[in-house]
Amino acid sequence: MGTRALPIVAQSATRSIVAQGATSSSAKPEPTGFFTDTTICIGCKACEVACKEWNQLPARGDGGAHLEMSGQSYDNTLELSGDSWRHVKFIEQFPEPYEGRWLMMSDVCKHCVQAPCLEVCPTGAIIRTEFDTVVIQSDTCNGCRDCIGACPFGVIGTNHVSNTAQKCTLCYDRTSVGLEPACSKACPTDSIQFGPISELRERAAKRQVQLREQGETRAYLYGADPNGPLGGLNSFYLLVDEPEVYGLPRDPKLPSRNLVKGSLISSFAAFMMAALGALPLRAPPACPRCPSPPHPVSSPPAPPPAATPTSSGRSR
Predict the structure, then answer these.
(1) pLDDT tens digit string along 146-198?
(2) What is the DSSP letter of 132?
(3) Measured torsion, CA atoms of residues 86, 122, 232, 240, in degrees rounded to the nearest 10
(4) Which of 82, 121, 234, 302 has its CA 20 to 30 A from that of 311?
(5) What is the largest CA-CA distance in the chain?
(6) What is the separation of C-alpha 147 from the centre of its chain, rounded to a whole number of angstroms?
(7) Where are the domains positioned within the chain?
(8) Residue 13 CA: distances (Å) to CA of 17, 45, 118, 213
(9) In sequence order, which ranges of 26-107 are alpha helices (DSSP H)?
């Protein structure tokens, strides 16, 4: 991503909203993101390759020296990770050998409006940029992995070269100078579309209506609702099956939802431990049915020493 400092709009481990080098009256750029139309994804993986090349991401595992085929359809990337920020999913739905369909989806970080990873980061390594995107600063990350567990989409992973958490930056180094992200630039079918979120939502709604008029009544938008889970997603999708089919959670939530429940459970556990510690410790009562232990057998007294005769014939 280069060495230029990022203009931070929101930062983890703090509730303040700051814009470096800007005043409160400064105009904030319109939020940008991705709209992915899965119905026209052809599974070419051009987005994966472009992401790897532009961000100089290493091959998975041991650097690519011993890559093996997964055996799972045409998908050898398998999942998003710190080494793979784009992942094209191949979903085969074939109840019969010649009857079925392929579902393909180019998955990426959702850049949530209310980002769980940003909520739990203890070092301030995860920031929200002026484009409303979420970025991890590797030079500040301590590798605690809290963000990995907090992400409901399984997006974040540890990069085995830097040993820090990494994910899609929505090509901040490109968008900050007016360029399109590498993945959407490389997509040959415009399945991945980049632009202002407001325009993308209008475009996605029209596409949904078009598909339903053409008979695809299952078409719907996932993550486009600003009043939905996590305040909406800045990378949202048009799907034609249930979210779980694509490996997406139906109702993603923030980690803070567990604060009240966790506090009550912890308080109750502490009270029970204190109550148990106050109980007096005493020996268990004797069992009336248990046989008494046998008495120890005393050994007979030792015989007195024999008398030793003297020279006069008398014993001592």
Answers:
(1) 999 999 999 999 998 889 999 999 999 999 999 999 999 999 999 999 999 99
(2) S
(3) 40
(4) 302
(5) 140
(6) 6
(7) 10-61+72-253
(8) 11, 36, 8, 47
(9) 46-55
